[in-house]
Fold:
Amino acid sequence: MAEPRRAQSRILTVWDPLVRLLHWCLVVAFFAAWGLGEWGPNQMTWHFYFGYTVGALVTIRVIWGLVGPRNARFTSFLYKPGEVIAYLRHLPAREPSNWVGHNPLGGWSVLAMLGLLIVQVATGLVSDPQDFINVGPFAQYVPSSISTSLAPSIHELVSTLLLIVVGIHITAIAFYLHWKGENLVKPMITGKKVIDERD
Amino acid sequence: MRKTLLALTFVLPAAAAFAQSPEDTVKARQGYFDLLGAQMAVLAPMAQGKMDFDAAKAETAAKNLGALAKVDITPLFPEGTSNADLMDTRALPVIWERGDDFKAKLSAMHAAASEMEAAAGSLETLGPAVGKLGGACKACHDDFRAK
Structure:
């Protein structure tokens, strides 16, 4: 009877299969597109393909955020500022959050990542770097001041912002694992999370 | 004294006529890149299947590229003509900081442009040649041109 309340731990399904599949496909497609953009061959065909893939994944995720199961929905994970602040107060505590789904802080970071990815895909599609081989498929439909200058500038800026946001995302997961003793990676693989319901 | 003044009245206007303003220099080199672009605007859509292959048009564009590849445009990049000095240019100051690298990339572009004539005869060879020249455009734009 050392810890009688242990029995109240429950295994819940927090992430549906589509959310998990989209997440890990996005990891691959994002890093492939980013790496190819930065260090890839001058003929950027594969950067384009991975960029299109990111666009498709984000589109599906946004639709799923409107019609999917509870934890996948925007309405379930975009919390009011007050709730975010309340969550932030508990953040330094060395105990698992036991949160089901995206926590109030993580929810907004999801929206930030999706938003930046949409901007990145959109600016890529209309960019014309004036090299005749890496012209975005929709570059011809926007004014040339946008396609040859503004869109490539934003594309480059957002590539850095995305790296920072992804860096924060990974740092947060390491923080939860080592400081709070909560593994957030496993649920994103198996879909299941052990929730301690003592509180 | 009179002779000197007389001489100056002839020399000064002549000197003024020959010295190109930085703005004109920028226009001249932009004109060069516009000419390159006009040839690629013929060849690239053919290579990418967006336009039917037209051997005669391809040959003309490729020949023009070969001629343009022989033009030394380094005198059109004098100091004081970067986008930090002038409006209406996207030439980054790093061109003058890493001059050898810039010249190497120009040479790579010239090499790719001069190969175009031999490649423009068929679609099979045109594709890789356009890829190579476009790649040379990109490599230089990435480092030396403002977005």
